[in-house]
Design a protein that fits this description.
alpha+beta; Jelly Rolls; six-stranded antiparallel beta sheet; about 25% helix; about 25% strand; binds 2-oxoglutaric acid
């Protein structure tokens, strides 16, 4: 490469083997953080009082803007130095705690995360890192490997129709797989991969930290669907996720409007077939 050429990279991971596993599955589990970082994150979690004592809450959904901004800043400062060693060409967008107090109503059903940046060239990434051991009873992560490549549809607030909503229980129970993530490890994933967590039926609170990252020099965006079913896409500020309240119309510059937005609903047989075909193409034995 000559000195005047610029290298345009669209790869995500520095490491070739991780990159291949990531392209195939949509996620990888890797050794991620040292005990001092985990202790510092736990201290931040304890110091920053969300005021929420029950149920499941990602700090993103707190109505307390000060709590959200402080949580974001602390998680970003502690987690980003580790994530940037693993992926290339990204910048941090939003740091959160994902807290699951014990309770039968704490399932996070299968979903893809909101679109927060253009995904046509590069995926948006998230790192999901337990701060203490997670047993299957505490709300362990489950995924549908490869689904980042073949599920379609826009994702945003307050709610969007999805291709799997009519059959999500069967998809969850028959196709999704548990992901074992030890303390010190993290799941780094393309936010389009279908994922979710069962209820915390243990007697302990589960605390996870999570940091979203978007490609460098990309404008954050958000899709909003009105009660009438009109979808609007907005370019939004970098701090959008810490100041936005779900249900509101986003402020920002509108770049698209789609009347009567809809997606093609898939049957369980169609989802199983896409999943099986994808695993045949990519192979799933390593
Ligand atoms: O923390 C959890 O239980 C679920 C997290 C999740 O699904 C997400 O970060 O999108």
């Amino acid at each position: 490469m000559s000195a005047t050429e610029t290298r345009v990279t669209t790869r995500t991971f520095h490491d070739d083997e991780l990159e291949q596993r990531f392209l195939r599955d949509g996620y990888v589990v890797i050794d991620f953080a040292d005990p001092a970082t985990i202790d510092a994150l736990l201290r931040a979690y304890e110091d920053l009082d969300s005021g929420i004592e029950e149920g499941y809450y990602p700090s993103l959904m707190s109505p307390d803007l000060d709590y959200k901004a402080k949580t974001h800043a602390q998680v970003r400062d502690l987690v980003w130095p580790h994530l940037t060693q693993v992926i290339e060409g990204y910048e941090p967008l939003l740091g959160v705690f994902m807290v699951k107090h014990p309770g039968p109503d704490t399932e996070v059903p299968p979903h893809q995360d909101w679109i927060v940046a253009d995904e046509s060239l590069r995926p948006t990434m998230n790192v999901w890192m337990p701060l203490a051991e997670i047993t299957p009873e505490m709300g362990q992560m489950r995924v549908l490997p490869g689904s980042h490549r073949w599920l379609e549809g826009l994702r945003g607030s307050p709610s969007f129709p999805t291709q799997w909503e009519g059959v999500y229980q069967q998809v969850r129970d028959d196709l999704m797989e548990p992901v074992d993530i030890k303390v010190g490890q993290a799941m780094v994933y393309d936010i389009r991969v279908l994922h979710g967590t069962p209820a915390n039926v243990s007697d302990q609170t589960r605390v996870v930290t999570s940091l979203y990252a978007i490609p460098e020099n990309t404008a954050p965006i958000h899709y909003y669907r009105s009660p009438e079913g009109v979808v609007e896409g907005y370019e939004v500020a970098n701090n959008f996720c810490t100041v936005f309240n779900i249900g509101d119309v986003p402020s920002g510059s509108k770049f698209t409007e789609i009347a009567d937005y809809g997606v093609e609903a898939l049957s369980f047989a169609e989802i199983s077939e896409r999943h099986a075909r994808d695993r045949r193409v990519f192979g799933s034995d390593s």
